[in-house]
């Protein structure tokens, strides 16, 4: 039985493609240790009862501390990404549980001061991909 060159090349391409899929960072089998156990959570941040609408956001009580807290959480690897839509902030956390995320948020002085309020939601990804920030114009 003779195998054509075209069939052999096709088989090699399929084997190569399958090996790349297994090595993909999006593959659950590629995740190891702690990363495989962590879940994603969406935190919606809205203005709280003590938000002063006569002031700019960066002039709000505890705004600087809020920004510093988010920076620390990002640098520690707890924040996957952050964004804003309308007047709502959205932060995606990687954590073990919603309680862990709530503990992160409760340490933010702007939350206890009522400048902001938040809600934690389980975040289930069904279209994985890449999100890149757009340049500010």
TrEMBL record:
SUPFAM superfamilies for the chain: Dimeric alpha+beta barrel (SSF54909)
* Ranges for domain YCII-related: 57-123
Cited InterPro entries: Dimeric_a/b-barrel (IPR011008), YCII (IPR005545)
Can you tell which superkingdom this protein's organism belongs to?
A: Bacteria
PROSITE patterns on file:
PROKAR_LIPOPROTEIN (PS51257)
Q: Which Pfam families match?
A: YCII
The record's comment on protein family reads: Belongs to the YciI family.
Protein name per the record: YCII-related domain-containing protein
Q: Which organism is it from?
A: Aliikangiella coralliicola
